[in-house]
Amino acid sequence: MSGLRHQDKVALITAATDGIGYAIAERLGKEGAKVVISSRKQKNVDAAVNNLRQQGIEVMGLVCHVGKKEHREALIQETVAKYGGIDILVSNAAVNPVYGPMLKVTTEEAWDKIFDINVKASFFLVKSAMPYMKNRKGASVILVSSIGGFTPDKSLGAYSTSKTAMFGLVKNLAVECAEFGVRVNGLAPGLIKTRFSKQLWDGRESEAVGFSIPLGRIGLPEDCGAVVSFLASDDAAFVVGENIVAAGGQLSRL
Fold it and tell me: Which burial class, exposed, middle or buried, applies to 120 when counting CB atoms under 10 A from its CB (0-12, 13-18, 19+)?
């Protein structure tokens, strides 16, 4: 950890009450950022805020369903009202309501839900935040996707497709936002030990080889927090439009 390299920055992270999002908020907060976390349930927000404050992190928590325009707008406006602007935006929310062969299990309703949350909400969150990020020194956006966007799992077809779309969203936003001095990059985690991915790893924690992870272990949320901290820092000042894979060596290419 490189000290307080995010001192006095304002970091907004969606879906940040557990798993990868929480680890990102914790890491940025420990490095000096004022963090704003959000999730759909008030009790989860309250618990995460309490845990972060016990570590000496300045944090505000808000309820936000990113699929709802009014929630996204309120999240941005309340953050700006409290802190005056946004330096780091991390879009981490994602859903996967179906599991199994894509052609067999994916309904139109499920497809719409996946793309509304995983792709559409990320774009409109960035669009709403940009007026409060542009021309702020070192401002940075990180969109969290998945290695599944590179190497699909046949049981996660629609989800994987949405994450491939996220790679393109990063590339396009990076070009436009660079004009405002805002860097946009993506994080593509591999198999990370979280509640969201529990169906994949539960009971198989020691089977990293079976998941083709050369490093020999399943990833931890903290591994993702470290990458986001780097991408949001001045150490990554010339990194723009990249989708960084954190997957312990799993193959990743389109």
Answer: middle
Looking at residue 217, its pLDDT comes to: 85
Residues 155-189: pLDDT tens digits? 899 999 999 999 999 999 999 999 999 999 999 99
Does the annotation mark 159 as catalytic?
Answer: yes
pLDDT in tens, 60-69: 999 999 999 9
List, edge to edge, every strand of the sheet that includes 59-63: 59-63, 34-39, 10-13, 88-91, 140-144, 183-189, 243-246
Closest CA relative to residue 88, chosen from 183, 179, 17, 177: 183
Identify the active-site residue in 22, 83, 132, 159.
Answer: 159
Question: CB-based contacts of 23: which residues, under 8 Å, 6+ apart?
Answer: 220, 221, 222, 224, 225
- For the chain, domains (ranges, CATH) are 10-246 (3.40.50.720)
- Model-wide pTM > 0.90: yes
Given a contact cutoff of 8 angstroms between Cβ atoms, the answer to whether 246 and 220 are in contact is no
